[in-house]
Amino acid sequence: MNLKRLEYFSQLAMLGSFTRAAEKIGIAQPALTIAMQKLEQEVGLKLINRAEKNALLTAEGKVLFTLAKQLLNQAKQVELELKELKDLARGSIRFGVSAMMGSYYFPKVLSEFKQKYPHIKIQVIDQGTAALEQMLLNGELDLALIRGDLENPQLRYTELINEEVVAGMANSHPFAKQNSLSLAEFCQQPLILFHQGYYLREVVSHYAKKHQLSLDIRMETNLTELQKSLLKNQLGITTCLSRILASEPELTAVSFQPKIAFKLSLAWKKSHYVSQASKAFMRYLTESLR
């Protein structure tokens, strides 16, 4: 069925006049008349009462008008989807991730995604997960990697990362020979911690507050390479993920008992429009990191 004729027919049905419909569409009235005649021939039904001034559409015409509106809306949606697929060549994504996760999980993934979609611009914003969640809610980000254990009802989530939080320390530290340690033992040591707002800091701060413990924080930094250097120089111990210490022969990762899970999810605002570029990035991250 010819969509252009259906569009003409819908305009005619809405405006109730060949003259007004032709002006609205931008064609001559005889051309509209011919188009409607061809539509009637195409469907094999009489659609327009040309002799009736107050009832332009026949009963069959009214049925077709209802169906035509649905079909034309679907056609517009298809057109938008196809346009967005083309826009993958020039889309943009505002993606929030913490410095630690960005450094250890995403260099390879981002590079591969950029090779596949070279013209999609990705703006990476580095903040703690609490700040990133607020930026999502404010509409300042399209996607962010944030904590998945405390879900906000305004956001949608898909879990990407589930790892264990460990205590990182120099090989010479007395705890390095233990199979595990408690948060109580950890909190009694000189500490090197992330800034407030980062989960690896919050898990310690919440425990200390709950048990009314005073922490001996020797250094606060979000720079993981600086943290590792300070650990090697025995300035203190820290919370981290074991993969961060995997290539560090001078450092040891010790599990907490009970174990502490580190769950991160890719999140986006429910009411925020998710572009095709963002959807492509979400699919790629899900396939790469799960």
Automatic annotation (TrEMBL):
A Pfam family annotated for this chain is: LysR_substrate
Any one GO molecular function term: DNA binding
The keyword Repeat appears for this protein: no
Provide GO CC annotations from the record: cytosol
Sorted UniProt keywords: DNA-binding, Transcription, Transcription regulation
Ranges of residues in domain HTH lysR-type: 1-58
Say which family it is in: Belongs to the LysR transcriptional regulatory family.
Stated name of the protein: DNA-binding transcriptional regulator, LysR family
